[in-house]
Amino acid sequence: MKSRIFHTRSEEETVALGESLAAELPAKAVVLLIGNLGAGKTTLAKGIVKGLGAPQPEEVSSPTFTLIHEYSPSVYHIDLYRLDQPAQVATLGLDEIFDRHAVVLIEWGERFPELMPENRIEIRLRTTGEDSREIEVNASSPSPSP
Ligand code: ADP
Ligand code: MG
After folding, report:
1. Which of 25, 83, 105, 145 could bond 88 through an S-S bridge, CB–CB 3.0 to 4.6 Å?
2. Angle 38-5-46 from CA coordinates, rounded to 5°
3. pLDDT value, residue 139
């Protein structure tokens, strides 16, 4: 997946962008959605999930896991907003999810960099107006793969 910058002018356009980005994602990928509250992270995630053709969300029942939505065995959406201690995040068993052959979308994961895999896709969302957003896809991983 190439690094690029997109601009959207409505929630619908961001969903549509998510759908088209879904087609480019590797089947196994960790995607950090980075941006302020209201930037459109969840909206973009909805589009990606839609594009991946995942069925309706099925929340995993364990209380700790309410932050993790399993849309299908190959599509996850995680929101770490309500957690502030790395120790709390460490109890979620994210590594096990990262190891799966799945697309894992994460909001607020950048707050816990040491718990995120090095090989990841980062998508940064910026509010540029009431209904306009700049969305930057950055596929680069810190070290080249062998
Ligand atoms: P986040 O998860 O980053 O906190 P959400 O996706 O939950 O953000 O919310 C984004 C809000 O911004 C929604 O209320 C949405 O209707 C609004 N919005 C306005 N313009 C856009 C746009 N271009 N893309 C995405 N959301 C937009
Ligand atoms: Mg959100």
Report:
1. 83
2. 45
3. 82
**CA atoms of 133 and 62, how far apart (whole Å):** 35
Task: Pick the more confident residue, 35 or 139.
Answer: 35
* C-alpha to C-alpha distance for 15 and 51, rounded to whole angstroms: 9
What distance in angstroms lies between residue 73's CA and the mean position of ligand 1's atoms? 26
**CA of 124 relative to ligand 1 center, distance in Å:** 13
Asked whether the predicted pLDDT for residue 144 surpasses 60, the reply is no
Q: What DSSP string runs through 117-144? A: -SS-EEEEEEE-SSS-EEEEEE---SS-
- Is 10 near ligand 1, meaning CB less than 6 Å away? yes
The three-class DSSP label of residue 60 is: coil
Query: pLDDT tens, 49-80?
Result: 999 997 665 554 444 556 898 888 999 999 99
- Ligand 1: does its nearest atom lie under 6 Å from the Cβ of 42? yes
Assess whether pLDDT exceeds 70 at residue 145: no
- Mapped onto helix, strand or coil, the DSSP state of residue 20 is helix
Please give the model's pTM, rounded to 2 decimal places: 0.92
